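Dear colleague,

Thank you for sharing your sequence with our group. We've completed the structure prediction you requested, and as agreed, I am returning the results in plain text so they can be pasted directly into your records. Please verify that the sequence below matches your submission; if there's any discrepancy, let me know and we will rerun it promptly.
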Amino acid sequence: MAHTGNAVHAAKVAGYAHPAVAASKLQRREPIMQTVRQQVAARVESTLVPLAVATFEEVLKPENGEKYPARVRVDAADKVLKHYRSTMGDAEPEKELHEMTAAELRQRYDREKLKLAAYDALVADAENTIEHEADEALSPAEEGGSGDDIFG
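Please find the predicted C-alpha cells below.
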C-alpha cells in the first residue's frame, strides 16, 4: 500500500480472500497506517526529494536561462526560498504592515526590493529572448533584402 497508495490492490497482493473488505479493515488500524506513512515518508525522503532538488538546480542554473521560461525559473526560486525559510525557522506568517515596527518595515522593504530586482532581471531576460526569437524568425527579405514584397 505504501508503494501504490491502493489499499485494495495491496490486500489482493497479500492474498486476502476479500481484498476490499480487508483493505477497509486494515486502513482503520492505526499501527498499520502509521507504518504505511513511515514507509511513504522514507520513500519521499530517499527518492523524490533528491530528484526535486536536482530539478530545481537544473532550472535555476544561469546557463539554462534560455531553456526554461522566466515564470518557471521565478516559481522555482520562490519555492526554494520558501522551503529554505521554513527550515531556518523563518516560516511564521508575516505581520500586517500596520503591526510592524520601523525596523521590521525596513527589513521587509529591503527584502521586497531584492525580489523586485530579481523579477526585473528575469523580465529583461525574457524580453531579450522574445526579441531574439523574433529576429531569428525574420526571412532574408524582411531583414533588408530586395524590397520586392507587396509594399515595396
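Summary note from our side: The helical segments are 7-14, 19-27, 30-60, 70-87, 102-137.

Kind regards,
the structure core
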